[in-house]
UniProtKB/TrEMBL annotation, chain A:
It is found in: Mitochondrion. Residues 57-139 form the Lipoyl-binding domain. The modification N6-lipoyllysine is found at residue 98. SUPFAM superfamilies: Single hybrid motif. Its cofactor is (R)-lipoate. One of its GO terms (cellular component) is glycine cleavage complex. Belongs to the GcvH family. It comes from the Eukaryota. The glycine cleavage system is composed of four proteins: P, T, L and H. GO terms for biological process: glycine decarboxylation via glycine cleavage system; protein lipoylation. Keywords: Lipoyl, Mitochondrion, Transit peptide. NCBIfam families: gcvH, PRK01202.1. This is Glycine cleavage system H protein.
TrEMBL record, chain B:
Pathway: Protein modification; protein lipoylation via endogenous pathway; protein N(6)-(lipoyl)lysine from octanoyl-[acyl-carrier-protein]: step 1/2. PANTHER family: LIPOYLTRANSFERASE 2, MITOCHONDRIAL-RELATED, OCTANOYLTRANSFERASE. The lineage of its organism: Eukaryota, Fungi, Dikarya, Basidiomycota, Agaricomycotina. Its EC number is 2.3.1.181. Belongs to the LipB family. One of its GO terms (biological process) is protein lipoylation. One of its GO terms (molecular function) is lipoyl(octanoyl) transferase activity. This is lipoyl(octanoyl) transferase. Residues 53-243 form the BPL/LPL catalytic domain.
């Protein structure tokens, strides 16, 4: 669209405005394509993965809904770096109020980083589960698995359906 | 609400820990398998996808033979010296995948394993732990006239330094294992004295029988089977489900239960107090 506008605008002698519109349109399309690279998807069991298409790296943790459901986290068990996992494999556990809840890999891949901050501050998982409370990063071996997960709208709907208390 | 009953079983004799743990794992895998077939074929289910599923929710009520267990976050290697000392005193020692830290189980203490499908029930983990804890407090108050001491720690206390019941659970895909333990008679107390239980150095174990004697001025010997029945009924009320006895209709589970009972029968007597060496 921007490309079509420019010749006409230039011919009308409105060069400065045109170049601003062109630059703006280009920046917008770049911005849109940048947004498409990082996708956040969810599992029915309240894990999320923020997947970066360019690097093939997914950051994994549990959702705010999950941390509320667990209670105050006192201990987080994280996988060893280098562990290879299939989608659905046990990835560790979160302990709260004397219940150890297993966490599962949303996608297959190799663990390349774990959040060491959770060793001293397991409470981060309650305070900021979708930010500072990330659990680990995985290098995806089957990126197509991302498509099988829930998007934000579907996940929100699931949470609303499940709400009993 | 669902009319699906909780199937319960009260074991007649104290069970050795490992066969009972294997029984829990067997029931867990039967429940997990049933969820896979009833939902879209994936392991991760939702409450609606489970509505047609057939696997039962189970409540096992039992005593164990003397055993010390550690929880998931503890380092079994670091505990090796302690393990040897405790085994010498006549108990087993097992590292488990439940939450919580070191505790003791043995005759005179009721252990409950609610093996529930929380996703299907529409209950979340914290809620389940909270209900169980409240149930145990209500049991002490209503059955034995013993008020609980309000503590920030999970479990049930009768004073700041005396703990009568513990909770330690594991949740996998919304299916629970392990559960709670409540001291009924004084028999477990000498065994508790051998460890720092639940990571609380200043806390000692107490029993329902002794606490009741303290609060009512009269010691009444308690019967484990009767107390199991009271707890069973309370679970039914709290989770809004009828309770029904587990029987041969659940073929696989019944067979596994009978096998564990046979092992317990053959195991014979157990030390009534820690062996002093």
């Amino acid at each position: 669209m921007a490309a079509r506008l420019i010749p006409r605008v230039f011919s009308a002698g409105l060069a400065p405005r045109a170049s601003f519109q062109f630059a703006h349109a280009t920046a917008r399309s770049q911005f849109l394509s940048m947004r498409a690279i990082a996708t956040k998807k969810y599992t029915p069991e309240h894990e999320w993965v923020l997947y970066d298409d360019a690097t093939k790296i997914g950051t994994i943790s549990i959702t705010d809904y999950a941390q509320k459901a667990l209670g105050d986290v006192v201990f987080v068990e994280l996988p060893a770096i280098g562990t290879e996992l299939a989608q659905g494999d046990n990835i560790g556990a979160v302990e709260s109020v004397k219940a150890a809840s297993d966490i599962y890999a949303p996608i297959s891949g190799k663990i390349i980083e774990v959040n060491k901050g959770l060793d001293d501050k397991p409470g981060l998982l309650n305070a900021d589960p979708e930010g500072e409370g990330w659990l680990c990063k995985i290098e995806a071996s089957k990126p197509e698995e991302i498509d099988s997960l829930l998007d934000e709208a579907a996940y929100k709907q699931l949470c609303e359906e499940g709400h009993q208390e | 609400m669902s009319l699906r009953p909780v199937l319960y079983h009260i074991f007649p004799k104290p069970l050795p820990y490992l066969p009972a743990l294997a029984l829990q794992e067997k029931i867990h895998s039967i429940q997990a398998r049933s969820r896979t077939t009833s939902s879209t074929g994936e392991k991760e289910a939702t409450q609606s996808s489970l509505s047609g599923s057939k696997h039962p929710d189970i409540l096992l009520l039992l005593e164990h033979r003397p055993v010390y267990t550690a929880g998931r976050r503890q380092d079994a290697v670091a505990l090796d010296e302690e393990r040897k000392r405790l085994v010498r005193s006549g108990a087993e020692w097992v590292a488990t995948q439940r939450g919580g830290e070191t505790t003791y189980h043995g005759p005179g203490q009721i252990v409950g394993y609610p093996l529930f499908d929380l996703t299907r029930m529409g209950i979340r983990t914290r809620e389940h732990v909270c209900r169980t804890q409240t149930l145990l407090k209500d049991y002490l108050r209503d059955r034995h006239n013993v008020p609980s001491f309000e503590s920030t720690h999970t479990g049930v206390f009768v004073s700041e330094t005396e703990k009568v019941a513990s909770i330690g659970m594991q949740v996998r895909h919304g299916l629970t294992s392990h559960g709670f333990a409540i001291n009924i008679t004084d028999e477990p107390l000498r065994w508790f004295d051998q460890v720092v239980a639940c990571g609380l150095a200043d806390v000692r174990a107490a029993s329902a029988e002794s606490a009741r004697a303290q609060f009512t001025g009269k010691r009444v010997p308690l019967n484990i089977r009767e107390e199991c029945e009271v707890l069973r009924d309370m679970f039914g009320e709290v989770y809004h489900m009828p309770v029904k006895s587990l029987d041969e209709a659940e073929v696989e589970i019944w067979q596994a239960v009978k096998e564990v009972e046979a092992v317990a029968e053959q195991a014979g007597e157990w030390p009534r107090e820690p062996i002093q060496t």
